[in-house]
Design brief:
Number of helices: 15
Radius of gyration: 21 Å
Strand content: 15-25%
Number of domains: 2
Mean pLDDT: 92
Largest sheet: 8 strands, mixed
Bound molecules: nicotinamide-adenine-dinucleotide
Distance between the termini: 22 Å
CATH topology of the largest domain: Rossmann fold
Order of helices and strands: EHHEEEHHEHEHHHEHEHEHHHEEEHEEH
Structural class: alpha/beta
CATH class of the largest domain: Alpha Beta
Length: 441
């Protein structure tokens, strides 16, 4: 039987890398909810009810009634950013929330002043803030971040810390076996200041895990999805998860593709495009940064609609005629700001290969969708640590575009939203001392 989670004793420190649109929307929402002035809509940990027990004993309970989740009142926030604006200024600048939804918690937001960022402009060329650490090597960056975490703990007296990356997408870093496979090689590269293979995000993750904090990667960066970090998470007994918040288009994709697959319809192509105009969109307008996102967004369909398993249905489309076409585009278009528009054109076929089309037009709000995921990922990774779970937490894939999987062993990731939900429910059951099961609810 899996371990039951221990109850929390003190406060939970949430240290966020990046104090932009997503993080300020997340922080403001938590503070407003605490005051009873807003509702944390979209958060599974605050709303979802899971069945525990079977037959006459079955009950549907909220997560907090199954497991000892940290309370929103017990959260203390801190952040790092390249720009010096405090959380209030940054929330206003982001233009996601209306002033009336920010002003009531202004006093608390103003106090969240970002610490200097561990940053390298080569990883996000479109950013030019100067609230940046002066670090001679990547190892030096790590040391400084570790110091920040220790100082924050000391000053606030928090019992536990989770580090969440909600900073810009970095340029694509291909996995390099010589540097990223073994922890000792990774550490050596940090000490030798191998700036091409060691992204600043790896320094945050390394520092967090070393300081006994779970690390969550909200962007699609190559950070904890390397064997060296898995080794570190095992060594420090800390949870890690996949990457890239599953908010708009990919949520739709991982929920909609199962309809096609379950009814054995064919797919010849899926074209996804987006327009967005926030700073995230600006960074993603740079081809090297977009590449990171593209890899993450493309991976979703391939493990749900698998050409090798159903060549008649999914073996159509590209040059080699082995698979459907799958294209993803992101276009920076300032007038929309944070209100992203996503279009999906899905070319399917049915009986005797007759073609049909499905169009989905999602007029969403990026940060409004991402904020509840931040809350859930933070609370659940803290819970997992208290349940003695460490290394890759597959149940957190529900919230992420790219589930972590051991590609060195050819493990296939689970992208199917409803299979991921079963993993989530079972993890909650187990951490609450109930048995995992696969009953239909
Ligand atoms: N909103 C969504 O739906 C969604 C979905 C998936 C992933 N994401 C990812 O979440 C991240 C945040 O999105 P956003 O809209 O808040 O972006 P944003 O540009 O508003 O905020 C990111 C902040 O990170 C800061 N930053 C960049 N590099 C840093 C570093 N090394 N250290 C500290 N700070 C750093 C930037 O200065 C900026 O203020 C992006 O990577 C985005 O791709 C967002």
């Amino acid at each position: 039987m899996a371990e039951k989670a221990k109850a929390p004793n003190g406060k939970l420190g949430v240290m966020i890398v990046g104090l932009g649109a997503v993080s300020t929307t997340f922080i403001t929402g938590v503070l407003m909810t605490r005051k009873g002035l807003a509702k944390p809509v979209g958060s599974m940990t605050q709303y979802d009810k899971i069945r525990v027990g079977k037959g006459a004993d079955k009950k549907y309970l909220k997560y907090k009634d199954i497991v000892p989740l940290a309370d929103l009142n017990d959260i203390e926030f801190a952040a790092w950013d390249v720009y010096p604006a405090n959380a209030y200024e940054s929330a206003i600048n982001a233009e996601v929330l209306k002033e009336k939804d920010i002003e009531p918690v202004k006093e608390e937001l103003v106090k969240i002043v970002p610490m200097k960022a561990a940053f390298d402009r080569n990883y996000a060329k479109r950013l030019d803030g100067d609230n940046v650490k002066d670090a001679k090597t990547r190892w030096d960056m790590v040391e400084q971040i570790r110091e920040d975490i220790r100082k924050f703990k000391e000053e606030t007296g928090v019992e536990r810390v989770v580090v969440l990356w909600a900073a810009s997408t970095e340029v694509y870093v291909p996995v390099n076996e010589k540097v990223h496979y073994k922890l000792e090689d990774l550490e050596k590269a940090m000490k030798e200041n191998d700036v091409d293979n060691i992204a600043p995000s790896m320094c945050y993750a390394y520092a967090a895990l070393k300081e006994g904090a779970p690390f969550i990667m909200g962007a699609p960066n190559t950070t904890v999805d390397i064997p060296a970090m898995w080794e570190l998470a095992e060594q420090t007994k800390m949870p890690i998860a996949g990457k890239d918040f599953k908010t708009g288009q990919t949520l739709v994709k991982s929920g909609f593709a199962p309809i096609i697959g379950t009814r054995c319809l064919g797919l010849s192509g899926w074209f996804s495009t987006n327009i967005l105009g926030n700073r995230d969109g600006l960074v993603l307008d740079e081809p090297a940064n977009f590449r990171t996102k593209e890899v993450s967004k493309l991976s979703t369909l391939e493990s749900i609609l698998v050409p090798e398993n159903q060549p008649d249905l999914y073996g159509h489309g590209n040059d080699e005629d082995t698979q459907y076409y799958h294209k993803v585009r992101i276009n920076y278009y300032p007038p929309r700001n944070d209100n992203k528009e996503g279009w999906d054109n899905i070319d399917i076929f049915g009986w005797m290969n007759y073609p049909m089309q499905i169009k989905i037009n999602f007029l969403c709000r990026d940060s409004i969708l991402a904020a509840p995921l931040c809350l859930d990922l933070v609370l659940l990774s803290d819970l997992a640590a208290r349940a003695g779970r460490y290394g890759t937490q597959r149940f957190l894939s529900f919230f992420l575009k790219s589930p972590q999987h051991d590609y060195t062993e050819d493990e296939v990731p689970v992208n199917h939203l409803f299979q991921q939900y079963v993993m989530l429910k079972n993890a909650i059951r187990e951490m609450g001392g109930y048995e995992a099961d696969e009953e239909i609810d």
